[in-house]
């Protein structure tokens, strides 16, 4: 059985170093996670997690502004980068983002985004 209480089996990933640092800061201010566990929690960029796995990956799609998302689409929705992010999870992948705005992404250029949105395995909350 998978132990989701083992903080070393959870990683939070972002495409951007600045966003990963911001997440680290916010978790550091959170009183619900003690300092020891905060130090054990992996919070980093997709590139830094390459070659590693965790039971649970929480992946931030990083953006909610449509203009920014469109401008940065080649970076944010690069199929190789997303594959690395998604394939780090052994048992559970949680994607955090604005699904309504993701629908504005050019699905002809990024068909894998459309496939992700329409997947039977994706539960939109």
- What's the overall geometry? globular
Structural class: alpha/beta
Share of helical residues: 40-55%
Span between N and C termini?
26 Å
- Strand-residue proportion: 15-25%
Return the string of H and E elements.
EHHEHEHHHEHH
Number of strands: 4
Global mean pLDDT? 85
Low-confidence blocks of residues: none
Major sheet description = 4 strands, parallel
Strand order within the widest beta sheet: 2-1-3-4
Spatial extent as radius of gyration: 15 Å
Number of helices: 8
Set out the fold topology.
Elements: E1 10-14, H1 17-29, H2 35-40, E2 42-45, H3 46-49, E3 54-60, H4 66-71, H5 73-76, H6 79-86, E4 89-96, H7 99-102, H8 111-118
Describe it for me?
With about 120 residues, the protein is α/β, with parallel strands linked by helices. The chain is built from 8 helices and 4 strands, in the order βααβαβαααβαα. Strands 2-1-3-4 form a 4-stranded parallel β-sheet. The protein is globular. The chain starts with 9 loop residues before the first strand and ends in a 7-residue tail after the last helix.
Give structural attributes.
single chain, 125 residues, 8 helices
Summarize the structure.
It contains eight helices and four strands. It is of the alpha/beta class.
